[in-house]
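Help wanted!
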Amino acid sequence: MPKTIKVDFLTRVEGEGALLIRFKGKRVDKVELNIYEPPRFFEALLLGKPCFEAPDVTARICGICPVAYQMSACHALEATWGVVLPDHLRQLRRLLYAGEWLESHLLHMFLLHAPDFLGYPDAMQMAQDHPEPVRAALRMKKAGNAIVNVLGGREIHPINVRVGGFYRLPTREALQALLPELKWTRETMLESLAWMRGFTFPDLVREQEHVALRHSHDYPFSEGRIVSTAGLDIDVATYEAHFEERHLPHSTALHAVLKQRGAYVCGPLPRLNLNADRLRPAAQQALAVSGLELPCFNPFRSILARGVEVVQAADEAIAIIEAYEPGVPNVPIVPQAGRGHGCTEAPRGILYHRYDISADGSIAGAKIVPPTSQNQGSIEDDLRALAPQLVDLPHADATRLAEQAVRNYDPCISCSTHFLKLNIEHAS
Amino acid sequence: MKQRKKKLAVFKFASCDGCQLSLLDCEDELLAVAGAVDIAHFLEASSRIRRGPYDVTLVEGSVTTEHDALRIQKIREQSKILVTIGACATSGGIQALRNSRDIAEMVRVVYASPQYISTLDTSTAISDHVHVDYELRGCPVNKHQLLSVLTSLLHGQVPRVPSHPVCLDCKRSGVVCVSVVDGTPCLGPVTHTGCDALCPRYGRGCFGCYGPSDTPQVAAQALVLRRQGQSDAQIAAGYASFNVGMQPFAQEFAKGLAKDKR
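Answered by r_m:
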């Protein structure tokens, strides 16, 4: 029976952190998710910069989801002046986002998370016994990266996105060349889901509030209202009236919570729980194959939700490419003073940006709330709820299970410029 | 006789994770690389962690805390060959913008309880702290360059990374000059190659992801930018990005700051 579970270096997560769980008898005495990633002060770096630089600067917060930062920044700035893009540009943005979901979800599902379910230290070792799923995953991931590459210019920190649209639009031919691999991905993911539904999922059900965007007719990428399983339904511009970042006692973390109800979850499971009726038919089929029963509140099953979203993203990308006709690459915008809000669905959950713009077009204020700082409270609550299972396991197995519980959220520590160290002491 | 596989390590400092992700983005080569080397320390990819010494160590990110300033010393001791990957590690990254600002004020902008935050006043390149054997530029690095450098090192060869300006890449590949044709401000004439002139290919001016090239002519560059209507402040601000910590970009940026204060 473990007395302490200590992981000095959390692995297979993006960015660096540590984990400590201390038990007193069968009870958890202390849970500490120690994020030692050094802060980079992006909200301060942005001050005084021309506002059109926000998409390129904030992309550098995260190498895994730069498109999410670019999209939230663009939408926030365009909202400042009430700019709405023509449909062909809206569709291309959805296509770019689909590419990022594909590469990010496939990286997490197969290279970072699946080794937990099968008992390997990494995907390279896993590939020695299970070569086919790993090879298929890399090929599917490449199909996602190819979208970002063609439309964005490169996979990491794309250069073709600008406020108002794109610098240059791709030709029909360049996009159509992506179709065969995307179609292959859509089919292959169904096989992967059929395989993954047979994994053993630890039993952990916590009916925490799930939060996601919801759009009038599409599965959410960059538009919609913020809704929750507890009935929240708000305009993005009122985010800060309902959510806040708090300093907890003994903590240097900024912790996003709902002012009224505390911790909540965002990401693939909440998106699916709140938007299953917006899935495309191919993704509905994937949902059936996955065996997920909605609403699902077991975070260990998030890997299946990611798989359903892979099919959704691939299918939507195919539809957008098949209907694509190039038009103007962007709409001209002259910045004026104002305040704008943007919230989009990063692969890990909602990503909120708010900018205050001066009359000369420079940034006077910025606020960025990444998904992982929103999920942090829930990660710790999961670990506490998991404790009764952990105490009865041999130490090595308990450590592995605790790490797996953290990985359920695909935490992106580099993103979370805010949080440094969290320390929760329980009164004994 | 079977040769021992070389031990590869990847370490992260203040960064976005993107440069080490480039390795995982080598979908066609990843399993081959994993078969050719012994991945001894790569936290983002593997839970198997082994001690040094390491034959080749890749370092991503800049030094921004006292703890990290000590950690890089230990990593250097454990590494036969140390390669820095990307703009943060080679120049201090965009977070080096703090070097010219009041760090206490920046902490206050982001954090409600600044007393909890421990950070250095500066963000510095790895080479400001330890000897670096090879540097790979870029925000992010070019994954093909990364693979090529790794391959050279694993075969005991000296990696060759060209250092001419982006401008030359445009001329070589027949990309229409955005500066001459459209009058778009472009840092291509002073920026290090590595991206294959990506931005001009997309009709956009280069914004300096790869930092200064060999002998960059920033004075001549300023003349061109001024002719395109840029003010001195705008010219200086153009260098205030991912390689602001590297000369002469740092000095060009500082000129703008000095003018602001006057």
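OP: Thanks! One thing I noticed: The CA atoms of residues 243 and 258 of chain A lie 4 Å apart.
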